[in-house]
Design goal:
The chain is mostly helical. Helices cover 57% and strands 0% of the residues.
């Protein structure tokens, strides 16, 4: 018998025993957004994590922050003024170093809004605005919406982990297309961030050989 948490949105489990069992195995939703970070910092961090595992990205970000002394995180002006090769030296690829510079310039010109301004913008308006910046794609902005702003209805359909989790939960032989995830995900509105988080956890559980979907 499923024992899904009483706080679980019914749209995630109603008529969906596979997803209900996943939630039962994972437990309560526990994503905690880093809301104190500025949009500038969140975007730099998202770019640093592109195509890298968490440990490698964290190491490079630590070196990046150390370039600027004792500040918790550098300002856009500081990043704009630092030499390009300094960013290369700490481990950023040539492309990523350029992206970090572009984000800093966009913050200084107002394309990257401040915290108060961005809070009142709709998700798609934020995506449209920030993807103007070189190197900032939809995935990076979606990660910011989820982990930086705590927006509740974001489904990153191009994310490999989300698609892989979907294949695991619904026992698909092939990785689903983004369009397939999007179509199925309509039933999860307005809690698609929660659904995405559980799909990531499905990958973790499968890796640990603990996910048994018998119903």
């Amino acid at each position: 018998m499923q024992r899904t948490n009483s706080h679980t949105p019914i749209c995630l489990t109603d008529g969906d025993p596979a997803f209900a069992m996943l939630i039962d195995q994972v437990g309560p939703f526990s994503l905690k957004p880093e809301k104190k970070r500025s949009p500038f910092e969140a975007l730099v961090r998202a770019v640093a994590h592109q195509q890298l595992n968490g440990k490698a990205a964290t190491t490079i970000l630590g070196r990046f922050i150390n370039l600027f002394g004792d500040a918790a995180f550098p300002s856009p002006k500081q990043v704009e003024e630092i030499e390009f090769e300094e960013l290369r030296r700490i481990g950023f690829s040539r492309a990523k170093a350029g992206y970090v510079k572009a984000i800093a310039q966009a913050a200084l010109t107002g394309i990257v809004p401040g915290r108060k301004e961005i809070e009142v913008l709709e998700d798609e308006a934020i995506i449209e605005r920030l993807t103007q910046i070189k190197g900032v794609g939809r995935w990076s902005v979606e990660m910011f919406l989820m982990f930086g702003l705590g927006r509740p209805d974001v489904l990153p359909i191009h994310d490999y982990g989300v698609r892989n989790g979907f294949a695991i939960v619904y026992r698909k032989r092939k990785l689903p297309t983004p369009a397939q995830v999007q179509k199925h995900g309509e039933r999860w509105r307005p809690h698609r961030t929660t659904a995405a988080w559980y799909l990531w956890r499905a990958v973790d559980l499968a890796r640990e050989t603990k996910l048994v979907m018998n119903f």
